[in-house]
Specification:
Length: 212
């Protein structure tokens, strides 16, 4: 049974006849009830489901990160959903059922702020990964006070370690300890966020590393 929350002309919550009403992020919506499935999934549906599951598995390891790093493009959706949507369209490779993520095409942040120039990542003693870049303060909206956003993903453990703002752009280097991933192959990324948190840079893939 549906409940009208703003009178007969307003939005409603629940089911009225064959229509379902609700509210998401302050937006009233209506949709028809889902019809009962009479048969199995089509090949196209199975393919899409497999791709979706692959991307969600990846993004779920960095939920708090993408809530910030994808918010510039998250129009009436969460950063998580926007991240899934982008990577579903751009980073899945292979033929069903053997899909995989092309990590060099994957974004873990998205925005118009310039990234660091020529970033790289190398393994260092103590299970550290050292990120380096050339300070490009003054290029576009890049400022010396912008903060590096580092992310390291371990496929074997399906786990990410990250920071949402550490060393300044002007420092030209930052270090992330990933001792949890000792001995494992990891995928590395760098992005930037303005000091006031309003601007984000699209991430750059800085390669695969074996953690010492």
């Amino acid at each position: 049974m549906g409940t009208f929350v703003k009178g007969i002309l307003g939005g409603f919550s629940g089911t009225v006849g064959t229509v379902v009403g609700g509210n998401w992020k302050g937006i009233d919506y209506m949709r028809s009830q889902s019809a009962k499935r009479s048969g199995g999934f089509t090949q196209a549906q199975l393919q899409q489901q497999a791709k979706f599951a692959l991307v969600v598995k990846f993004v779920q390891t960095m939920t708090a990160f993408v809530a910030i790093s994808f918010r510039d493009f998250a129009v009436q959706m969460t950063g998580f959903n926007n991240s899934v949507s982008y990577n579903l369209k751009n980073a899945v490779t292979g033929v069903y059922p053997d899909y995989s993520l092309a990590y060099n095409l994957t974004l873990v942040s998205r925005g118009d702020l310039p990234n660091g120039l020529g970033p790289s990542a190398v393994a260092a003693a103590g299970s550290n990964i050292v990120f380096s870049w050339t300070d490009n303060t003054g290029v576009g909206r890049a400022k010396a006070t912008d903060l590096a956003m580092l992310l390291v993903y371990c496929p074997a453990m399906n786990l990410s370690i990250y920071t949402t703002g550490s060393a300044a752009r002007s420092a030209a280097t930052d270090t992330l300890n990933v001792s949890t991933f000792s001995g494992e192959k990891v995928e590395t990324y760098i992005g930037f966020i303005s000091a006031d948190g309003k601007d984000i840079a699209s991430s750059i893939y800085t390669g695969q590393i074996v953690v010492p």
